[in-house]
Amino acid sequence: MGRGDHRSYGLGRRTWRRSRMSIRNARLARPRRSQETSTMYPNTSRTRVRIAAASIVAASVLAACGSSDSEEADGAPAAVSATTEAMADDMADDEMADDMADDDMADDMADDDMADPTATTEAMADDEMADDEMADDEMADDMADDMADEVALAEWQTITLTDVDGVSFTLADFRGTPVFVETFATWCPKCKDQLEATNAAAEQVGDQAVFIAVSVETGLSNGDVADYAAANGFDAVRFAVLTPEALAAFVDGLGQSAANPPSTPKVVIDAMGAAGELSTGFESAEDIVAKVTGQV
C-alpha cells in the first residue's frame, strides 16, 4: 500500500468514526421505546443502521478514490469498504441487542403490573396479625412473671426437702405449675385412703400439676417411705420425709393441723406460687382434679 493509499485509508476510518459517533449520540438522545412502539415498528432501528452504514461506505469510498495516486489505489477503497461494512454490521448487532433488552424490560414491567395486589395485601395483613399475636403472648408472659415475682413465698415453700430418690428440691421450684401437697403418716389408715384418691387424681392430671406427699414422721428413712409407696402402688405421687425444721415450718405456715395426719391435711399452691388454705377431711380424686385445674 503506497503513501496515498495510507492517506485514503486513514481518511476513510476518520469519516467512519465521525459517522459512528453521530449515530451513537442520536441513539442516546432518543427516548426509550415502549413495548407498544417496538411491536408496531419492529425494524425501524435496523433500517436506520443500514442507512447509516451505507452512508459511511459511500463516504469512505469517495474519500479513498479522491486521494489515491498510486497503482495500488484500486485495492484501498475495497479494503476500507470491507472494514466499514464489518463495523456497520457490529453496530447493527448492538442495536438489535439493545432492542431485545428493551423488550425484556417491558415484559418484566408488564408482569409486575399484572401481579395480584390483593395477595400482597393479604400477606402483609397476615404478617401484622402474627406480629400482634406474638406481642400479646409476650406481654401476657411478662405479666405472669411480674405477678409471680410479687407473690410472697412462705418459709415452708422455700425450705429444702429431699425425696425418696435422694433428690433435693423446694416447693417453690415448681412455680408455673400447680402443686398439691399432702402430709401423712405411714401408720395412718385415713392417710392411705386419701393417698389412693390423690394418686388417682395425679394419674388423671398428668403433667398439668405436681403431687407431693410428705411424711411427718421425721425419724423415718427415705427407704422406709419408698417401700410404703411401692407397696401401695402410689407411683404417680412424689414422696419425701420432713426434717424437724421442715415440719416446724409447715406448722408455722399452715397451722397445727398440718402435723395431724388423721385429719388428712392438704393444700394447693397455684401456678403463681400462692398457697391456698389448708383443708382437712377426705377428698375424692374428682375433687382434687377440680382444685388443681382451677375448676373450683
How large is the count of helical segments?
A: 10
Oligomer state equals single chain
Q: What is the makeup of the main sheet?
A: 4 strands, mixed
The CATH homologous superfamily of the largest domain is called: Glutaredoxin
- Helix amount: 55-70%
Outline the secondary-structure elements.
Blueprint: H1 3-29, H2 35-40, H3 44-67, H4 75-114, H5 117-150, H6 155-158, E1 161-162, E2 168-169, E3 179-184, H7 189-205, E4 210-215, H8 222-232, E5 238-241, H9 244-254, E6 266-269, H10 285-292
Helix pairs in contact: 1-3, 1-4, 3-4, 7-10
Describe, in plain words, how this protein is organized in 3D:
This protein is an alpha/beta fold and 296 residues long. It is built from 10 helices and 6 strands, in the order ααααααβββαβαβαβα. The protein has a 4-stranded mixed sheet. It has a two-stranded antiparallel ribbon with strand order 1-2. The protein is rod-shaped and about 120 Å long.
